[in-house]
Design goal:
This protein is of the alpha/beta class. It is built from 13 helices and twelve strands.
Length: 325
């Protein structure tokens, strides 16, 4: 009788253990099935190392916020500076029903904002969000767009220009006539540079095809070349470097990669950090935050960078404090 009772108890324990295991496994399966994969649509305007670095930062920012691996699906498209592709690809990312959209560079952010008024849009690397008509108020976004703005430290760039090339009097500004972010930077540079006594001449190009011709015309009239954060010029920067090198004229661009590729110097924003901030803002939206609760974040603290090889070619002696940095 005792053995029979013991068998019943043991059998009951086995049933409980097996049943509990099955329930636990079922619970995990059900929980896993209920977890929604976060879908992020990313539109990059053109291939360039500065923008590529922003995209890498976006991925890192999402990962640091808990979105990676199987929990995240990134829908990435690159318009390669083709405005018609910006429009079609923006619509594609909307049609794919992504939870949040990210535009890398102003034209990409504009394309996404024009394609939807419902899906949140996070802009990355937009120098003038208000001028680009993406937001009306940086502190209180009123529609479906917010993000991160990189405000170029132009005053510091002019100070650096004065230190490195004190004999420069005439500055030519090369930029794209089709990029709103460039126009606002150009106006700011012109205003600040003229106050410092520089003679500023503006040279706008409708596409990268006109860069070489425009450079040849400009270099005979100026002592140095300034380039704002401009995707069109960045995509064909080798043409700018080639022409300026032949004429032994310094180039002051606005991105570290362009200094590395042949520019003399600049005061630049860290593009990877900007991307990380963009990714983290997208993560906040994925976690339930409203666009209206996320003010536009401004990156405006730059770091001086100098191409030592170019300085030597131009016969420029770098100040000791810049060498130290």
């Amino acid at each position: 009788m005792k053995n029979k009772s013991l068998m019943v108890v043991l059998l009951a324990l086995v049933v409980l253990l097996v049943g509990g295991g099955l329930y636990s496994q079922f619970g995990k399966t059900k929980e896993k099935a209920s977890q929604k994969v976060a879908r992020v649509g990313v539109l990059q305007y053109v291939t360039h190392e500065s923008l590529d670095e922003i995209y890498k930062g976006i991925q890192d920012g999402l990962k640091e916020s808990g979105y990676s691996g199987k929990d995240l699906k990134i829908d990435f498209l690159n318009a390669q500076a083709d405005q018609s592709k910006v429009q079609s690809m923006s619509q594609t990312l909307v049609d794919h029903k992504n939870d949040v959209l990210i535009g890398i560079a102003t034209p990409a952010a504009q394309g996404l904002a024009n394609a939807t008024s419902d899906i949140p849009v996070v802009m990355g690397a937009v120098s003038d969000p208000v001028g680009a008509k993406l937001v009306k108020d940086l502190k209180k976004p009123d529609k479906n767009v917010t993000g991160v703005s990189d405000h170029t430290p132009i005053a510091k760039q002019i100070t650096l220009m004065k230190r490195l090339t004190p004999d420069v009097k005439r500055v030519g500004v090369l930029y794209s006539s089709n990029e709103d972010n460039s126009k606002s930077q150009v106006e700011e540079f012109k205003s600040l540079a003229q106050k410092e006594g520089y003679e500023v001449s503006l040279y706008a190009v409708p596409s990268s095809n006109e860069i070489a011709t425009t450079m040849n015309v400009m270099l005979g009239k100026v002592d140095a070349v300034y380039i704002p954060l401009d995707n069109t010029i960045a995509s064909a920067f080798s043409s700018v470097v080639s022409a300026a090198k032949e004429q032994k004229k310094p180039i002051y661009p606005s991105a570290a990669k362009m200094v590395e590729e042949g520019g003399l110097a600049s005061v630049v924003i860290n593009q990877h950090d900007l991307g990380v901030a963009t990714g983290k803002m997208a993560a906040q939206i994925l976690s339930g935050k409203k666009v209206s609760d996320l003010p536009v974040e401004i990156f405006d603290q730059g770091t001086p960078v100098v191409n030592d090889a170019v300085a030597k070619e131009l016969g420029i002696t770098l100040p000791d404090d810049l060498k130290d940095k």
